[in-house]
Amino acid sequence: MQLDLTQASGFAGEIAASSTLSELNEVKVKYLGKKGLISLLNKQLPSLAPEERPAAGEKIQGLRNGFEALFQERLEKIGREAREKAILSEYIDISMPGFPFVNGSLHPVNRVYDEIVDIFTIAGYEVKSGPEVEDDYHNFEALNIPKTHPARDMQDTFYIHGDIVLRTHTSPVQIRTMESQKPPIKIISPGKVYRCDYDVTHSPMFHQVEGIVVDKGVTFGDMKGALRLFISRMFGDDLDVRLRPSFFPFTEPSAEVDMGCVQCRGKGCRMCKGTGWLEIGGCGMVDPEVFRFVGTDPDVYSGFAFGMGIERIALLKYGIDDIRLFYENSLKFLKQF
Ligand code: DAH
Prior knowledge:
Layout: H1 11-17, H2 21-32, H3 37-44, H4 53-89, H5 108-122, E1 126-127, E2 133-135, H6 136-139, E3 159-161, E4 164-166, H7 172-180, E5 185-194, E6 205-215, H8 220-235, E7 241-248, E8 251-260, E9 277-286, H9 288-294, E10 302-309, H10 310-318, H11 331-334
Parallel strand pairs: 1-5
Antiparallel strand pairs: 2-4, 3-4, 5-6, 6-10, 7-8, 8-9, 9-10
Helix pairs in contact: 1-4, 2-4, 5-10, 7-9
C-alpha cells in the first residue's frame, strides 16, 4: 500500500488566500488539527509495510515542515499588514487647525472691586474683611442702631436665627477693626452684603466697600479729599464731588456723596435726571457714640467713614442700567468686558 499525499499537499494556495488570522487558523486546523489532513496520514503509517514506513514518515514530516514554514511566513505578513493599516488609520494631520482656546475674563464687579482696592491701597489704606454671617451687635447695636431704631427698617435684613443676621452692610467691619486695633486706623473693607430686595437697582446679594480713618485731628475736609481722590482715580479728574447733608446713626454729621454725572460730565442729561449729579454712597464723621462702643475716646480721636455700593460704581462706570445683568451670567453680556 502507498500513502496518498495529494489532499494533504494542497495547503499552499489556502495559506496564501488567507487574509485574516482566523482564516489562517482555520487552514491550520484543517491540515494539522487532530483530524487534520496531515495528522490523518500519521494514523495510516501502521498499515504500511514496515520497510516503507521510514520513507513515508519522512514525507509526512516534510509536509508538516512545509506547512509550518508557509504558515509562519503568512502569519508574519498578516501581522505586518494589520500594523500598517492601524498606523495609517491613526494618522493625525498636524496641519489641521486646533480647537480655539476660549479665554475667560474678570467679571465686571470683580474688575471694579480690584480697581477700588488698588486706588485705596496706593493711598495707604489697609484692606480688612469681616464675617458675612454677623451678629446683631456688630451689624446694628455698636453702630448706634438700637433694636427700636427706625433705621433698621431701611435695611431689609435676612435673619438667620436669634441675633444672627446676614450682614446688611460692610460697616460692622469698622466696629471689629476698632475693637481689635488702636488708632491710627486707615482701612477699607470691600465685601458681600445681603438685603431682602430685588429689582432693577437691587439684588439680594451685592457688594459694598466701607472705609474708615481714625486718628487725632481727622477732619471733614480730609474725608472730602479722600472721596475726591477716589472718584478722580475711578472716573476721571474732571468730575466734581458734592456732599449733601443726610443722616446715618453711626456718623455725625452725615452726608450723601454725589459725583458729577459720568455721562454728561455734569451738564445734565437723562442719566442724572438733568441735575448733573449722581449719588454713589454715604459718609460722615464717626459718631462719638460709636467710639464709646469700641472704647475709643472721642475727645482724643476723630474719624470719618464712608460706604459705597460696588455694583453701583460698576453700573456707572460701564453705562449699564440693570444690576441683574451682573448675576445672570450670560456670556453675551460678560464677554463685553
Ligand atoms: N452702611 C451704610 C449703608 O449700607 C453706608 C454708609 C453710609 C457707610 C455712611 C458709612 C457711612 O460708613 O459713613 O447704607
